[in-house]
Every structure is written in structure tokens, then in C-alpha cells.
Amino acid sequence: MQSALALESQDIQKKFGHFTALGGVSIQIPRGEFVTLFGRNGAGKTTFLKIAATLMRPTHGSLHIEGIDIRKEPEQARRHIGFLSHNTFIYRDLSAIENLRFFCRLYGVNASDDRLMGLLERVGLRRRANDAVRAFSRGLQQRMGIARVLLHDPSLILLDEPYTGLDAQAVAMLNVVLDEIVAAGRTVILTTHDLEQGLRAATRAMVMDRGKVVMTSDARDPAIREAYSRLILMGGSR
Predict the structure, then answer these.
(1) What is the per-residue pLDDT across 188-206, written as a single tens digit (0 to 9) for each?
(2) Over the stretch 13-40, which tens digit does the pLDDT of each residue have?
(3) CA 65 to CA 79: how far, in whole Å?
(4) Which residue from 13, 158, 163, 216 lies 20 to 30 Å from 193 (Cα-Cα)?
């Protein structure tokens, strides 16, 4: 039986020496939700996403993806996860289509070139399919990263500051892709410093501060904007 929760964490803690990056994060995210995490640099957003993506082990606590314990079955959990961060994990010396072919082999995905070209079409790169990625701007490389994330059809999309460094056209393209992902019933967890972009399609918003979730609410709740202003823009205390 498939879990009704895309992600569930219980008391997730992460320490780096004497520094506590996460001080106990317990959240439940139902399938199909779009959740945006806000917080200052160092609040713990990226650390939490990396743990959820199985790229980092927690010091304490448990986390399940689609009902799968990431500690016990990380490989099975990864099949459900698409993760995009500042590092797009794209190989610069390969062309766009070669990158997708490589990740098909890595993910064990049997995809025709027609499907890969369709993915490149979705992110506006069909005409650049045979160009080396090293010639791409930051925005085009981020588009390639999005194509990679969608390649294995994950049910949970984790996006860490995806708008950073994008021009207006790339932002618009990313929003179209996110809208398609939401319409397909997939779950999105996004971190951003951009309040308006973060709330644009979100169903729920959370504010993190000092390694903890200090507020969670409907994305349309004005209290989210107040918390953003107090904790992030003004640097206030909890």
C-alpha cells in the first residue's frame, strides 16, 4: 500500500562537530503538496533537503520518502526523488542529449531519443540538443538540471534555491515546468529567498530558523509574510 505521505520526518537532527545545523525537524508532507521552505542562510533548509535526498545522513531521527525509510532502503527511496541544487550535476563536456543518455544509464531508465528530445523541448533546449553544456549560460545549465531531475519521472521533487542566477525568461520557464509537475500530482519541496516566487504556486509554507521549523501555514496566510519579514528580512529572533 502506497503511503499517503510523500515525506515524513521525525526529530531529524544534524550536527557538524559542535555546530547544530538541524535541531529536530518533524514534518509531514502529503502527496501532491507544494511546500516552500523559507529561512535565512544557515537556517538549515539546504541541510534538510540534502538529508531528504539521501545525500547526507542525519545525526539523529528518521525520514521516510513515500513510506520508505531512507536509512534502511536509500536506493529504493532515490527512485522516487528528483533533486536540484546549485550544482546541476551536469557534465560540461557532454552535449545536452549526451547528458540525458548518460543519466538514463545511471538511473536504469530505458528512454528513446524521442522522449529525451521531448524533455529538452519542455525546458526550451531542443535546438541546443547537440551543443556542449560548457557553452551554456547559468540559466541554460539550470534548465538542463531540470531535465535531468525529471528524467526518471520522480514523485517527489526537491529544489534548493532553483531561481538563483536565472534571468526572467528562465524563471518563467521554470514556473511553467513547476506548474506541469503540480498538475501531474507530484510533490514539490522548494527552498528560496524570493518570497513572491516561493508563494506563487505553493500550497503550504514553512519558515526555518536556527535549525528548526518555527512556523508552518497555508501559503496564503498573511502570517507567513509577517514571519518572513521579521525572521529573514529584519533578522529578528524567534
Answers:
(1) 999 998 899 999 999 999 9
(2) 999 999 999 999 999 999 999 999 999 9
(3) 10
(4) 13
Q: Cα(11)–Cα(133) distance, rounded to whole angstroms? A: 40
Beta-carbon contacts of 167 under 8 Å, excluding residues fewer than 6 positions away, are 139
The pairing of strands 212-218 and 60-65 is unpaired
Minimal CA–CA distance to 150: which of 192, 190, 107?
A: 107
pLDDT along the chain (238 residues), means of 10: 85 96 97 95 94 96 97 94 88 96 90 93 93 92 91 94 84 89 94 92 95 95 90 64
Residue 215 inside a domain? The answer is yes
Domain for residue 40, yes or no? yes
SS3 108: coil
Angle at 17 between CA 47 and CA 40, to 5 degrees: 35
- Give me the CATH number covering residue 72: 3.40.50.300
Total count of domains within the chain = 1
- DSSP class of residue 97 equals H
